[in-house]
Amino acid sequence: GENVEQHPSTLSVQEGDSAVIKCTYSDSASNYFPWYKQELGKGPQLIIDIRSNVGEKKDQRIAVTLNKTAKHFSLHITETQPEDSAVYFCAASISGANSKLTFGKGITLSVRP
Amino acid sequence: NAGVTQTPKFRILKIGQSMTLQCTQDMNHNYMYWYRQDPGMGLKLIYYSVGAGITDKGEVPNGYNVSRSTTEDFPLRLELAAPSQTSVYFCASSPVDRGGDTEAFFGQGTRLTVV
């Protein structure tokens, strides 16, 4: 089955700096790669996703890049703010029938004011 | 829409007791999932369902059972609670039939402690 690795487990940045979180996946058939943000005491929430026919996607301060050859994808957050502090999960799946997401272990991002 | 609703939010069980974690969604999603979240371990899939009457095991199904009699509801049953089942449980749903999207919508979670 799919295996998604996420490193490191924690990341601390100064407010205003950029943060980059990286994930690798093992199944070359995976074609859908979402990122979820989990705030304290809440369920994860989708913040951005990318499909395998696209190399990069942006949404305001966040962007995701995908390297299918190397089987890794990254989340980029620019101009970080204290409200960006949360746990971020990457995931991978094969879209379509019987689809299910495989999540990484999560990274705790702390933005220092 | 309320989205995905889980009850209860917190529960303490004694070893050997049983309970059902409730999950309901009002988005008419076909796919529903149960995950458990342990510190530093991410989200592990327990069971999932691709539609009413159909369920399948995920990565960590032992000690749990599910049913899907309606599109809206997907309860998770613990028959003989064990300390290893202490965790935060999340229910999620997704509209996979919408162009292949697999965005999952999560509930707020149930924090379960087995003592």
Keywords:
heterodimer; A: 113 residues; mainly beta; six-stranded mixed β-sheet; 54% strand; B: 115 residues; seven-stranded mixed β-sheet; four-stranded antiparallel β-sheet; 0% helix; 50% strand
The level of helicity of chain B is under 10%
Q: What level of helicity do the residues of chain A show?
A: under 10%
Overall geometry of chain B comes to globular
Structural class of chain A: mainly beta
Poorly predicted sequence stretches spanning 5 or more consecutive residues of chain B = none
Work out the number of β strands of chain A. Answer: 11
Structure description:
- The complex is a heterodimer of chains A (113) and B (115).
- By secondary structure, chain A is mostly beta strands.
- Helix content of chain A is 0%, strand content 54%.
- Chain A is globular, with a radius of gyration of 14 Å.
- Chain B is an all-beta fold and 115 residues long.
- In chain B, the strands form 2 sheets. In chain B, strands 2, 4, 5, 6, 9, 10 and 11 form a 7-stranded mixed beta sheet that branches. A 4-stranded antiparallel beta sheet of chain B has the order 1-3-8-7, with no helix packed on it.
- The relative contact order of chain B is 0.33.
- The model of chain B has no long low-confidence stretch (mean pLDDT 93).
- At the A-B interface, strand 5 and strand 10 of A face strand 4, strand 5 and strand 9 of B.
